[in-house]
Amino acid sequence: MAFAFQQNSGQRLFLVAHPAIFWHYDSYRKGQVRCTYEIIPENTPCKIYFDLEYDIRVNTPRVPVKIVNSFIVIVSNYLFHYFNLRVDKSNVLILDSSTDVKFSCHLIYQCKEAIFRDNINVGRFVRQVCAGIREVISDPRVIDVNPELWRGVTHAEICELLVCGRKDGEKLFCDESVYSKNRHFRLYRSTKLGKNAPLLLSDFNVYTPVEDTSQEKLFLDSLITCIGEVPAIPLQFGCQKEVCFRGETANRKISTISEVSVSHCVLEKFVTELISPCGRIRKRTVTSTPKGQRIQFDIQDYRFCAKVGRHHRSNNIYIVLDGSRGTWYQKCHDPDCIGFQSVERQLPPEVSFIIEKEDPDLEREDVSLWECSSVSDEIFVEFGTFGDYGGVSDKGTTLGDCEKGDVPEFGIGDNDLLFAATKC
Ligand SMILES: [Zn+2]
To answer: Which helix (H) or strand (E) holds 380?
Structure first.
């Protein structure tokens, strides 16, 4: 298995090791410097896992055990509905790294039958669950459409799963962005760098390993891709077409610098998943600053804008990855949305690692910088280490500047466009 760990300097190292051996050495490291992640490679069978979190300071008090229980009940109902699997809380390893200001929990399902083909399929399943929860919250009558999905929870309990973000509006406490390819997922007893808040067994965890309850066994059970015997047919969910990779096949030219293309792929796959299945990246613009890169991905065939809460009719949106802040957000070319920026969301570590690089020499703006930047090459070397293991798929391609398929901005707002259309 492949692991990633951060040193005090912030530098990331990758290691391929047998998990038991890795645990042996990792367990000797002091808590506050143990910043270790499991890498969940693409196309690798995995357990169902969740990252649950919310900011305690900006939310009305909740009872963590209560909302986690409600969530587990709903997930169990969905697993039964879609896969005929009977799973309950006793099958769920619950790890907790909550602090006074942030509730933070990982759920890792320990059920031999509940193994998915890969984390992309888990992500589709989770998004289905979350979409259902949002629907029910906005309209309780949805419960009557499929009452078995909501058995064991009340509408009030479901509404408690909706929390306030610190800067944004309401959202579910389940983070739906942790199912990207080659995702880094924090390990049992590990902390985020500089936080000293390790993931430990939750007070309300009731799962106990079958054979022994040693720390090592708990660690092995907490690993998402450490499965033992993989079922003959792992679970799949949703469409299996490789639509997520559409951006890799169309309108591309081969990069002459193959070293940077793995980094390209990681970033582009992250963005492509945000806009799947229909959206495509049509242009990227890189701005380098001493604190990291800011990359603007212009999107076509997908115009969902958080400001208007729907797809625009003509003008395109763009997505910005901000390496200096480790976040991403959506902006918009529609004149009605000038100045708008969606809620900033945390980038997964495998993405932010690539663009958070500090380099005082890079302060200029250059749309083609990426292809000639030696900075990216250097970062690639680190990724190459685990790419060799099989984690990263290197197609040796990069986005072209989209000579084809370029969609012009219409430069008028939806309302003006509608008005113009009705006049015709
Ligand atoms: Zn907009």
So the answer is: helix 374-389
Tell me, in angstroms, the distance from the centre of ligand 1 to residue 32's CA: 42
Residue 399, C-beta contacts closer than 8 angstroms, at least 6 positions apart: 247, 251, 252, 264, 268, 281, 283, 284
Q: Take residue 100 and report the two structure tokens written for it.
A: 């006074």
* Backbone torsion region of residue 238, taken as left when φ is above 0, otherwise alpha when ψ lies between -120 and 50, otherwise beta: left
The Å distance, Cα 317 to ligand 1 centre, comes to: 7
CA–CA dist 2, 224 (Å, integer): 12
Calpha distance 230→117 (Å, rounded): 9
Q: How far is the CA of 301 from the centre of ligand 1 (A)?
A: 14
What's the CA-to-centroid distance between 411 and ligand 1, angstroms?
12
Report the b/e string of 22-50 with b at 16+ CB within 10 A.
bbeebeeeeeebbbbbbbbbbebbbbbbb
Residue with tokens 């909501």: 150
Comparing C-alpha atoms, which of 268, 231, 214, 279 is closest to residue 23?
Answer: 214
Average pLDDT over residues 118-134: 91
Please state the domain extents for the chain: 2-222, 242-399
CA of 286 to the centre of ligand 1 (A): 22
Distance 176 CA to ligand 1 centre (A): 22
Report how far ligand 1's centroid is from the alpha carbon of 420 (Å). 18
Find the mean pLDDT for residues 191-203: 87
Question: If you measure from the C-alpha of residue 314 to the centroid of ligand 1, how many angstroms do you get, rounded to a whole number?
Answer: 10
- The pTM of this model reads 0.60
- Tell which wins on pLDDT, 354 or 92: 92
Q: Please tell me the distance between residue 247's alpha carbon and the centre of ligand 1 in angstroms.
A: 23
